[in-house]
Fold this sequence. Notes:
There is one protein chain. This protein has one domain (2-66). Helix content is 24%, strand content 26%. The chain has 2 helices and 4 strands. The chain has helices spanning 11-23, 56-59; strands at 2-7, 29-34, 39-41, 60-62. Helix 1 (11-23) links the parallel strand 1 (2-7) and strand 2. Flavin-adenine dinucleotide binds at residues 8-13, 34-37, 43-44, 46-47.
Amino acid sequence: MKNLVILGAGTAGTMMANHLARKLSKKEWEITIVDQHKTHYYQPGFLFLPFDIYKTSQVKKKGANLFPKR
Ligand SMILES: Cc1cc2nc3c(=O)[nH]c(=O)nc-3n(C[C@H](O)[C@H](O)[C@H](O)COP(=O)(O)OP(=O)(O)OC[C@H]3O[C@@H](n4cnc5c(N)ncnc54)[C@H](O)[C@@H]3O)c2cc1C
């Protein structure tokens, strides 16, 4: 079994985890994603917080919900 490690579960890491989970065989590859936070922050949404267009709950998501199940 090969292990692919993604450092950082921000925008790039989350996109790569989802992309590679579809491309790499489950039997051959394990995918590990490492981050210091369990929360994923949607940074572009930060711009809308001071104007009350977005609420905090809209820019903070549980990171694990955005990763592939495997
Ligand atoms: C206010 C704001 C508005 C923005 N608006 C836009 C926009 O409109 N359009 C657009 O395209 N882009 C926008 N961006 C930029 C966009 O959010 C970033 O380009 C994008 O998030 C970068 O993705 P990334 O995966 O490289 O980094 P990040 O998404 O920042 O992810 C890095 C991850 O690595 C983790 N990490 C870092 N160091 C460590 C460590 N030592 N150990 C463990 N984990 C670590 C962090 O916790 C984080 O989760 C905006 C950014 C900001 C701040």
